[in-house]
Design brief:
The protein is of the alpha+beta class. Helices cover 68% and strands 14% of the residues. The strands form 2 sheets. The chain has a 4-stranded antiparallel sheet with strand order 1-4-5-6, with no helix packed on it. A two-stranded antiparallel ribbon has the order 2-3. A hairpin with a 2-residue loop joins strand 2 (83-87) and strand 3.
């Protein structure tokens, strides 16, 4: 009774695996499509879009400090006054009631304003800083997406290998049981295979959990439930990078958005020093005004007035309790901090770039070595099967050979995916990662 049940279980496992693979092929999402969805639905990226839109307004806010300031005011009020006056008939009191109206239009155009000029420059730098931060956020989206996509693919690959390994042990157990029943094998062979099968069952369950978890993580980025991802194309080869590390590092110093953003922060700190020191400088404005009034006071009761003025206004700061000097010293200290932060940022980018570069370089050799290892272990399994028939090898040798083969397949899969992820990290570190790179990588999947 055990043999037919085991056979049915094996067929069921194979059927489920085929059904899972078939559903993935039917509903798998491609990397390029995943990026398009992520750019629309990823909440972190959408927040970065609005953050950048807000940052661009700093350009207009800074420019406003050098442009004319025009204001208009109007007032209307009902008045009742008590007015006493001497006359030939004695002192008399009247209570006039009247409406007062006034309107005032004023214009102020800065002519000499060092603080306004510093704020204008800061506005442009803040807008450029916002662009650099957004570029970093865009690269981060691509890295997160590619990482989540490849993790989902790796989980599916592990499930496929674990299922195939479990199926092999189940079939081998049937062979051992038949051989034991006919007296051609020992009970030990059955127990050895059963132990391997039990371990493989646990690995399948773990792999299924990983598939669900990685698909959920990918779905949160793209805003859509994921039923599967494209598989790595047959014959994929890891290609070594042609450029030297010095070329990558030079590009990173110029183009890496995190370094660019920190450079803008240093320039902003410099302009903050100029703005603080402007507190000691005079300000000269062109001013003009036009006003009209009607019965504005009791003295101008029933009178209409019109006033026009054009001139220059000079403001000379003399002393503000030491606030200007303190602000300048504070700005200088903040600039030194920005310079230190810049060096720290450069060091981190260079370290991450070096790690990614070394991994990409070593991965090409590692993938090639593991491909040979897979081929060798496959030949070993075939040779062991023949040796068992000839009585030279035993069941445990075949189990160990097959286990090693599946381990090599897992390691090869991991090495290929590490190569792709670190290739993206390398390009991101150099500030050259964009949708075109995703399109290039997407061609490796089918």
């Amino acid at each position: 009774m055990r043999q037919p049940f085991a056979m049915r279980a094996t067929r069921l496992a194979v059927g489920l695996a085929l059904a899972l693979g078939g559903s993935q092929m039917a509903q798998a999402i491609g990397l390029q499509q995943a990026l398009e969805l992520a750019m629309k639905n990823d909440p972190t990226y959408r927040a970065a879009i609005f953050e950048n839109a807000a940052g661009q307004e700093n350009r207009a806010l800074g420019r406003a400090n050098l442009l004319p300031q025009l204001s208009y005011s109007y007032s209307a009020s009902r008045n009742r006054a008590d007015q006493e006056a001497d006359s030939l008939y004695g002192r008399s009191t009247t209570h006039p009631q009247y409406m007062s109206r006034s309107s005032y239009l004023s214009l102020r155009q800065p002519l000499v304003n060092d603080e306004g000029l510093a704020r204008f420059r800061q506005g442009r730098l803040q807008a450029d800083l916002s662009d650099a931060v957004f570029a970093s956020r865009a690269q981060d989206l691509i890295l997160r997406l590619v990482g989540a996509y490849i993790e989902a693919l790796f989980a599916e690959e592990q499930l496929r290998l674990s299922t195939a390994q479990r199926n092999f042990y189940a079939e081998q157990k049937l062979v051992n049981e038949r051989s034991f029943a006919s007296g051609e094998a020992a009970r030990t062979d059955v127990l050895e295979t059963q132990a391997k099968l039990d371990t493989a069952e646990a690995q399948v369950l773990e792999a299924q959990d990983n598939v669900r978890a990685t698909r959920l993580a990918l779905g949160q980025i793209i805003g859509k439930e994921v039923d599967g991802v494209d598989k790595l194309a047959e014959g994929f080869k890891a290609v070594a990078v042609d450029d030297k590390f010095s070329d990558w590092s030079e590009r990173a110093r110029r183009l890496n958005p995190d370094i660019v953003a920190q450079n803008y922060s240093v320039e902003l700190a410099q302009q903050e020093i100029a703005r603080a020191k402007a507190g000691h400088q005079p300000r000269i404005d062109f001013v003009a005004s036009y006003g009209k009034g009607s019965s504005e006071t009791i003295n101008t009761y029933n009178q209409d007035t019109t006033s026009r003025s054009v001139g220059v206004q000079i403001q000379v700061p003399l002393f503000s309790g030491g606030a200007v000097s303190a602000s300048a010293r504070q700005a200088v200290a903040n600039k030194e901090k920005s310079l230190a932060d810049l060096q720290a940022r450069v060091d981190k980018v260079m370290l991450d770039l070096r790690k990614a570069y070394d991994t990409v370089v070593s991965s090409t050799a590692k993938v090639a070595a593991l491909e040979k290892a897979v081929a060798s272990s496959t030949l070993l399994v075939e040779a062991t099967e023949k040796s068992i028939k000839g009585g030279v090898r035993i069941n445990l040798d075949l189990l160990n050979a097959q286990t090693q083969r599946f381990q090599n397949l897992r390691d090869l899969s991991q090495a290929r995916f590490n190569y792709l992820v670190n290739l993206m990290r390398l390009r991101a570190g150099a500030g050259a990662l964009g949708p075109a790179d995703v399109k290039e990588i997407a061609a490796f999947f089918r």
